[in-house]
C-alpha cells in the first residue's frame, strides 16, 4: 500500500520537483530536485533572494503552474496532472490566497468579497460556516466595515479582508505571497500575528513566501531556497538568525 | 506605435462619420442635378434646400454621436495609460504637454479618418448613382462630385474628433507622478464629480421640455401647430437626458443587471457595468440616441398611419395608397438614423474591449479564487448584455413616448368631419422594435467575442504579479 501524505501528517507535498523554462542552450532552470512536505496546522515560511525559485515553488504547489518533472500533492490528491477544470475547483474549495497587493474585487463590498468563494461554488454557507465568518470578521476587526468597498479601506484593512476571505472556507492550505510587502511595518506585524494565530489557534496550514526576515520570524518553520534548491530547513527562528543566514548565503554566492 | 494602435477605433469612428456625411451630401447633389435636368432650375432650388436641410440634420446627429464615442474612447485609453503618463510626469513632463500630445493624436487620427471616409463616401455615392443610371431606375444626368460643400462634414469630423480627444483626455490632469511608483490599480470611483451646473441645467431643461411636450399634445387637440411646441419640448427634454446620462443610465443598468440573477458571474458583471458611471453613461448614450430617434420616428409614423386610416374610413382608394408611402419613409429614415447607431455600437464594442483588458489582474484574481473559464465568459457576456439591453430599453421607452407625443400634437385635431381624433394610444411598430432588439442581440455578441477570448486567456498567476 502506498503511503499517503496525510499518513505523514502532511497537508502538501512535492517530490523531486523540477521546473525549466525554455529549451536547448537557452533553458533556464527555476527549480532543481526539490522535495518537501508541509505539515498540517503549521505556518511555514519559504525564504530566498529574488530568482531563488520560491515563487515558482508556490505557484506549482497552488496549482497555478505545472512542473517540468516531479509530483505534487495537496492533501491526498495528486494534482500534478490535473486539468484546468479540476485545478479551478481545487483552488475554489481547498486553497486560500493572500496577495502582496491585496487583490480584493473592487466592485464588491467587504462581506461580498469574503463570501466570494462560497458564491463561486454556487452554495450558501451553512450556519456553522456563517458563525465562523462572523467570528473571523470580528477577530480581524472588520465587523463595522462589512458594507465598505475596498477603496474605502486602508491597506492594512484590505489585507485583513483578504485574510478573512482566505480563511472563510477553512481551506486545506493558505498561500500568502509577500503579504506584508505593501504595508508599513506596524500594520505588517499585525497581519503576521493574525496569520500565526490562525495556525496556532485554528490549526490552519499556511505557507508564506517572503524575503523579509522579520516576516519569516513569525513562522513555525523557515525553508530557504537558493538557485532553485532547498538549502536549509529550520524550525522557528529569530529575525536576526534568519538575517545572518541570508547574509552568509549572499556572501557564498 | 502602440499609442497609435490605441487610436484605431477613433480612426474607424471618424471614417464612418465622414463617409456617411459625404455620401449623403453627394447623393443630395446628384439628386439635385437630376431634378434640374428634368424640371429646370426654379423648382430645384427649393428641393435642394429641403434635401440639404434633411441631410444636415442626419449629419449633425452622426457627428454628435461620433464625438461622444471618441471622447469616451480617449478617456478609456487614457485610463489604461495611467502608468505610462505617471512615469513621464515623474521624469518631468507636464500634464499639459501630455494632454496636448493626446489631443494632437486626435487631430491627426481625425484628419486621416475623415479624408479616408470622404473618399469611401464619394465612391459609395458614385457607385449608387452609376448603378441606378445604368439600370435606368433613375434618369441619367450630368453631375459633379466636387462640391465645396463636401468640406463641411470633413471639417466638422476633424474638429469634433480633435475636441473630443481634448475633452476625453481630461483625466491626464488627475494622474499623479507617484502613481508610477506604486500600485496603479484603478480605484477611481469618484469620476462623477459634483458638477452642479450640469445637474441644474438638466433639471431645468427636463421640466421645460416635458411641460412643452404636454402643452404640445393639448394644443395639438385643437390645432396642428401643437407639433412645433412638441418638437421644441422633445429637443429640450432629450438634451436633458443626454446631459444627465451619468445619473440616468446607472440606475437603469442596475435594474437590468438584476435581471441576470444573483449568480457570481452575473452579479460581478452587473457591478462592472456601473463601476465607472461616467464611462458607462457615455458608452450607452450614443446607442440610446440612435434607438430613441429610430423608435420616435417609427412610432410617430405608425400612429399617424392609424389616425389617417381612421380619418379616411370611407375612402378605400386613399387608404391603399397611404401604406406604401409610410412604409418607405420609415425604412429610409430608420436607415439614415441607424447609421448613427452603428457608430455608437462601434464605440461600445471598443470601450468594453479596452476596459475588460484593463482588468487583467482582477481576472487573474477571479481565476485564482476559483472562477472557471465558463464563468469568466458568462461574466463578460452579461456585462455586454447589461449595457446593450439598458440602452435599448431606455431608447425604446423614450422613443415610444416621444413618438406618441409627436403624432398626437401634429394630428390630434385632424379627423373625419373636422371633429378631430382626440387622444389615441400610441401604435407600436413591432417590426421596427423587432429589428432594434435583434440588432441589440447581435451587438451584444459582437461586443463580447474579442474581450471574452482574451479574458479566458488570462492565467491565474497574473493575480500574483506585482505590476
TrEMBL record, chain A:
The keyword Hydrolase does not apply. Gene3D superfamilies: P-loop containing nucleotide triphosphate hydrolases. GO terms for molecular function: ATP binding; ATP hydrolysis activity; transmembrane transporter activity. Residues 12-252 form the ABC transporter domain. The keyword Transcription does not apply. Keywords: ATP-binding, Nucleotide-binding, Transport. One of its GO terms (cellular component) is membrane protein complex. InterPro entries: AAA+_ATPase (IPR003593), ABC_transporter-like_ATP-bd (IPR003439), ABC_transporter-like_CS (IPR017871), ABC_transpr_LolD-like (IPR015854), MacB-like_ATP-bd (IPR017911), P-loop_NTPase (IPR027417). This is ABC transport system ATP-binding protein.
UniProtKB/TrEMBL annotation, chain B:
It is a multi-pass membrane protein. It comes from Agromyces terreus. This is ABC transport system permease protein. It holds the Pfam family FtsX. One of its GO terms (molecular function) is transmembrane transporter activity. Residues 57-172, 336-458 form the ABC3 transporter permease C-terminal domain. The lineage of its organism: Bacteria, Bacillati, Actinomycetota, Actinomycetes, Micrococcales. GO terms for cellular component: plasma membrane. The keyword NADP does not apply.
Amino acid at each position: 500500500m502506498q503511503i499517503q501524505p496525510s499518513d505523514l501528517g502532511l497537508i502538501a507535498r512535492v517530490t523531486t520537483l523540477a521546473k525549466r523554462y525554455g529549451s536547448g542552450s537557452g533553458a533556464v532552470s527555476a527549480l532543481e530536485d526539490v522535495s518537501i512536505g508541509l505539515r498540517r496546522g503549521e505556518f511555514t515560511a519559504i525564504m530566498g533572494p529574488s530568482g531563488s525559485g520560491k515563487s515558482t515553488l508556490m505557484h506549482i504547489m497552488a496549482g497555478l503552474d505545472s512542473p517540468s518533472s516531479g509530483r505534487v500533492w495537496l492533501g491526498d490528491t495528486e494534482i500534478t496532472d490535473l486539468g484546468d477544470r479540476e485545478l479551478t475547483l481545487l483552488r475554489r474549495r481547498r486553497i486560500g490566497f493572500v496577495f502582496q497587493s491585496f487583490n480584493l474585487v473592487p466592485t464588491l463590498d467587504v462581506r461580498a468579497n469574503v463570501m466570494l468563494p462560497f458564491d463561486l461554488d454556487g452554495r450558501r454557507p451553512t450556519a456553522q460556516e456563517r458563525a465562523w465568518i462572523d467570528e473571523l470578521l470580528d477577530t480581524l476587526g472588520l465587523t463595522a466595515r462589512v458594507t465598505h468597498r475596498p477603496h474605502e479601506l486602508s491597506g492594512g484593512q484590505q489585507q485583513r479582508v483578504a485574510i478573512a476571505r482566505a480563511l472563510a472556507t477553512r481551506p486545506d492550505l493558505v498561500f500568502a505571497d509577500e503579504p506584508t510587502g505593501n504595508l508599513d511595518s506596524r500594520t505588517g506585524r499585525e497581519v503576521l500575528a493574525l496569520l500565526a494565530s490562525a495556525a496556532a489557534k485554528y490549526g490552519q496550514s499556511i505557507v508564506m513566501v517572503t524575503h523579509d526576515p522579520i516576516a519569516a520570524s513569525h513562522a513555525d518553520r523557515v525553508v530557504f531556497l537558493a538557485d532553485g534548491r532547498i538549502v536549509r530547513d529550520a524550525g522557528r527562528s529569530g529575525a536576526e538568525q534568519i538575517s545572518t543566514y541570508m547574509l552568509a548565503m549572499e556572501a557564498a554566492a | 506605435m502602440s499609442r497609435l494602435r490605441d487610436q484605431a477605433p477613433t480612426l474607424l469612428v471618424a471614417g464612418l462619420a465622414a463617409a456617411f456625411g459625404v455620401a449623403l451630401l453627394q447623393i443630395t447633389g446628384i439628386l439635385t442635378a437630376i431634378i434640374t435636368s428634368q424640371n429646370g432650375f426654379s423648382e430645384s432650388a427649393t428641393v435642394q434646400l429641403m434635401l440639404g436641410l434633411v441631410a444636415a440634420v442626419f449629419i449633425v446627429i452622426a457627428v454628435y454621436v461620433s464625438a461622444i464615442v471618441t471622447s469616451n474612447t480617449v478617456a478609456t485609453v487614457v485610463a489604461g495609460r495611467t502608468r505610462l503618463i505617471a512615469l513621464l510626469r515623474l521624469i518631468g513632463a507636464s500634464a499639459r504637454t501630455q494632454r496636448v500630445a493626446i489631443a494632437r493624436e486626435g487631430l491627426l487620427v481625425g484628419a486621416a479618418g475623415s479624408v479616408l471616409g470622404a473618399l469611401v463616401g464619394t465612391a459609395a455615392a458614385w457607385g449608387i448613382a452609376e448603378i441606378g443610371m445604368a439600370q435606368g431606375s433613375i434618369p441619367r444626368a450630368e453631375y459633379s462630385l466636387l462640391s465645396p460643400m463636401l468640406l463641411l462634414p470633413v471639417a466638422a469630423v476633424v474638429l469634433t474628433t480633435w475636441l473630443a480627444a481634448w475633452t476625453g483626455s481630461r483625466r491626464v490632469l488627475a494622474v499623479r507622478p507617484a502613481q508610477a511608483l506604486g500600485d496603479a490599480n484603478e480605484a477611481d470611483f469618484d469620476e462623477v464629480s459634483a458638477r452642479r451646473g450640469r445637474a441644474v441645467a438638466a433639471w431645468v431643461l427636463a421640466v421645460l421640455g416635458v411641460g412643452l411636450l404636454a402643452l404640445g399634445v393639448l394644443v395639438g387637440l385643437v390645432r396642428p401647430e401643437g407639433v412645433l411646441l412638441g418638437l421644441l419640448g422633445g429637443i429640450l427634454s432629450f438634451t436633458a437626458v443626454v446631459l444627465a446620462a451619468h445619473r440616468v443610465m446607472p440606475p437603469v443598468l442596475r435594474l437590468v443587471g438584476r435581471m441576470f440573477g444573483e449568480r457570481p458571474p452575473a452579479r460581478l458583471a452587473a457591478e462592472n457595468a456601473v463601476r465607472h458611471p461616467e464611462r458607462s453613461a457615455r458608452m450607452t448614450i450614443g446607442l440610446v440616441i440612435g434607438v430613441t430617434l429610430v423608435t420616435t420616428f417609427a412610432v410617430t409614423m405608425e400612429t399617424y398611419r392609424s389616425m389617417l386610416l381612421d380619418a379616411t374610413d370611407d375612402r378605400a382608394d386613399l387608404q391603399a395608397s397611404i401604406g406604401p408611402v409610410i412604409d418607405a419613409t420609415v425604412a429610409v429614415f430608420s436607415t439614415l438614423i441607424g447609421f448613427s447607431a452603428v457608430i455608437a455600437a462601434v464605440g461600445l464594442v471598443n470601450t468594453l474591449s479596452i476596459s475588460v483588458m484593463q482588468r487583467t489582474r482582477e481576472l487573474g484574481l477571479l481565476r485564482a479564487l476559483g472562477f472557471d473559464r465558463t464563468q469568466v465568459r458568462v461574466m463578460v457576456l452579461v456585462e455586454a448584455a447589461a449595457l446593450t439591453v439598458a440602452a435599448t430599453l431606455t431608447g425604446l421607452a423614450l422613443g415610444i413616448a416621444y413618438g406618441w407625443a409627436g403624432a398626437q400634437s401634429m394630428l390630434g385635431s385632424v379627423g373625419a368631419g373636422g371633429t378631430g381624433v382626440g387622444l389615441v394610444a400610441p401604435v407600436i411598430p413591432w417590426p421596427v422594435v423587432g429589428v432594434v432588439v435583434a440588432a441589440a442581440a447581435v451587438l451584444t455578441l459582437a461586443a463580447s467575442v474579442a474581450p471574452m477570448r482574451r479574458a479566458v486567456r488570462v492565467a491565474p498567476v497574473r493575480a500574483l504579479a506585482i505590476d
